Amino acid sequence: MPAHGSRSARTLVIGIDGATFDQIIPLVKGGRLPHIGALLEQGSWGPLRSTIPPVTAPAWSSFMTGVNPGRHGIYDFRYRDAGTYELRTNNLTMNRAPTLWEVLSRHDKRSCLINIPASWPPRPINGFWVTGILTPADATTYTYPPELTEQIRRAIPDYEVWPASVFHPTGREREFLRTIEELTWKRVELFRFLQTRAEWDTAMVVFMGADQVQHAMWHYQDPTHPQYDPDAPAEFRDAIAHTYEVIDAAVGALLAEAGRELNVFLVSDHGFGPLDDWFHINTWLIQEGLMVVKPHVKSRLKHLLFSLGFTPLNLYEWLLRLRLNRAVAHATRHRREETFALLRRLFVSFDDVDWSRTVAYSIGNAGPIFINLAGREPQGCVPPERYEETLEMVAERLRRITDPRTGRPLVTEIVFGKDIYAGPYASNGPDIMVLMRDMRVCAYGNTHFSSHRWLTPVYGRTGWHRMDGILVAAGPDIRQGEQVAGARLWDVYPTILALMDVPIPAGLDGQPLLSLLRDAARERIRYDSQGLEQYYQSEERLGYSAEEEEMMERHLKGLGYV
């Protein structure tokens, strides 16, 4: 297929969510990933540094906008609703920065986008856009243009953006793996369908299977994991490798469908590795006296029961033993408000926190801590003039944490938000990010108070994200045999603009990856005298409806992010 209105080669981006070279390189050497192996041989590759935190929503948002979270505003799947301590779910309306494809559209380039996370509702572009994870299951449209949704329903009746069968895989692993494989091929089928609709200059398809299977089944393949079972079925022990094989075959199918004269990028939003323990940040904050329970009799009684082990996590473990977890899941789906109101009445929650005496709290994945700052938080008690010393005090207490089982330090790295986020939305991000024991321990603050112990073995998932994802590039404009070093997620955006002969706007955090590009491609790099401001979105926030918000919370719980 010839390029549409351009003398430059077309660009195909294949996202493999959660892909890591730690898995890919051994499989390539073993001959199990022939298509990815060929791209490694024909092109250049290296690690791709993720965002902090290395979580799907902010990571892909930085990929698609070329800027850090402080400029686009997405830090996690969820955010604190203004004026409260309640959480709501992010979507593309909260992402202020212009996407790569909006800039390309301004320059008459057509795009074809499939299954990109955190991209609902899609924005108008020159081309087709089919959204991915964080799309409400009952969304009447999930495409741009809107009429494309109905066309897909007619052409591929069983296409789903985000099926319920990928949630809670424990105990039904075979069904889970079958669904992941089917989903992978549905993305390929959709790509083939859209190929018949119009030509494109850039295309992107994201496969989620590697991330989901590594989260749920890492312990089956890793003898170093505390939950490893050498007697587990062979198909489970090979599940991660097999998932990469399926994705490799899908990559081959996309390449065959797209044709020749193509620059190809394989990217992941973060890497992956084993997860041993949860560090329950809010429980630790209470034990440190940095979060305080209200003096009311009811809250004190709930906290006493909590300290004795009456917790959501222990209740969940008992339900698993009694095989009642499916009944609870059904109640949660169909009587959500009543169920969660009951849980908040029974267990300690943010309703029981005395915010007037609370120094810090956590909401989110992978180690976020927020100072309860006066003038920013609705009941902030830390004066702005004490912000710096409070940061240092909390960080110092974190550094002292040792594993009670071994006596070894738990904290690998502490970073301050002010040092890593820049832009108009930098103040919305966490004040502290704590990374623990090489990320085999995940600091977690999404469920308020799930355990009365601040360190517990993992449940429900045994793999977790790492800071380095993958970058592989090959094609007529890409050098062969370069070992890429220092690449960041947001650097791919300006690199693609350069390849597409489109001027790069001022104000991006990303820089073109010059080491990847052949001399002729480097010579075509142009910079726009105007900055990103010309593309920025309105400040109006649409968000989700109340019903959609309930649905998104259920889905994120099913995936283990809430």
How is the secondary structure organized here?
Layout: E1 10-16, H1 21-29, H2 34-42, E2 44-49, H3 56-65, H4 69-72, E3 78-80, E4 87-89, H5 100-106, E5 111-116, E6 127-131, E7 143-144, H6 147-155, H7 173-195, E8 202-207, H8 209-221, H9 234-237, H10 239-258, E9 262-267, E10 271-274, E11 277-280, H11 281-287, H12 297-307, H13 312-321, H14 325-334, H15 336-346, E12 360-361, E13 368-371, H16 387-399, E14 411-416, H17 417-420, E15 432-436, E16 441-444, E17 455-457, E18 463-466, E19 468-474, E20 487-488, H18 492-499, E21 504-506, H19 519-523, E22 527-531, H20 546-559
Parallel strand pairs: 1-8, 1-9, 2-20, 5-6, 5-8, 11-16, 21-22
Antiparallel strand pairs: 2-19, 3-4, 6-7, 9-19, 10-18, 11-17, 12-13, 13-15, 14-15
Task: Give me a quick take on this structure.
With 562 residues, the chain is an alpha/beta fold.
Approximately what portion of the residues adopt beta-strand conformation? 15-25%
Shape: globular
What is the end-to-end distance? 44 Å
Give the spatial strand order of the biggest sheet.
7-6-5-8-1-9-19-2-20
Work out the number of β strands: 22
